[in-house]
Write a structure and sequence with these properties.
The chain is of the alpha/beta class and 211 residues long. Helices cover 33% and strands 13% of the residues. It contains seven helices and five strands. The protein is globular and about 45 Å long. The chain starts with a strand and ends with a helix.
Length: 211
């Protein structure tokens, strides 16, 4: 059996837009992906390491533990051997308390790739390949999280293209989630259940070529 690690934020954790609830595993995209890979005859186990509000390398001034780079190497060590790491982060870098642009988020993702590749895994275990997924663009922030993401729809512009170019340089696989899903109109940021399903199926097709 091959092991895949999904490292992400609330878009992968499966928060239900407009609530603080969480979709069941088989309805959020990592679970949909796992099920689709099983259907394709691949014996895989998908482990999720996702937390609401996670940034790439930047601090959340209000909540501790949201810097995605902190402890990442040890998470890779703990989960190894891994057949693949799926990395989908960047959305929270555009929260209103940050001045970041797409360039800053892409630079943060590059730092995460470096942390994964230099993790202190056991001798003889493989350095896992990495699939970088560009999150779908932020829509018009709405509801309770609107102040938190005010202006995010402008700051995130250009992220997929930057990540794609970066992945070509770093030798990572790349997928643009915005080509198959859109953020929920309920809050402008997260994914509705049908979008999780669509993304999970699309990523299964990509992942089966990488493992």
């Amino acid at each position: 059996m091959q092991h895949i690690l999904v490292y992400g934020d609330s878009l992968s954790w499966g928060i239900v837009p407009g609530t603080r609830q969480r979709l069941p595993f088989d309805q959020r995209w990592p679970g949909v992906m796992e099920g689709a890979l099983h259907t394709l005859g691949r014996r895989v186990r998908v482990a999720e390491d996702c937390i609401n509000g996670r940034r790439t390398v930047y601090d959340d001034p209000y909540k501790p533990g949201r810097r995605g780079i902190d402890g990442l190497a040890q998470r890779i060590e703990a989960q190894s051997p891994l057949a693949l790491v799926v990395l989908m982060l960047g959305t929270n870098d555009f929260q209103s308390m940050h001045p970041h642009t797409a360039w800053h988020a892409a630079a943060g993702v590059a730092a995460l790739v470096g942390a994964i590749r230099t993790a202190p895994i056991e001798p003889g275990m493989p350095v896992p390949p990495i699939l970088v997924v560009a999150p779908p663009p932020i829509g018009t922030p709405a509801g309770a999280i609107a102040p938190k993401f005010a202006g995010g729809q402008h700051k995130c512009v250009g992220l997929p293209a930057l990540l794609q170019a970066q992945c070509a340089e770093l030798g990572c696989a790349f997928f643009d989630a915005g080509q198959v899903v859109s953020s929920s109109p309920t809050d402008g940021v997260h994914l509705d259940a049908p979008e999780h399903h669509r993304l999970g199926l699309a990523l299964a097709e990509v992942v089966r070529t990488l493992i």
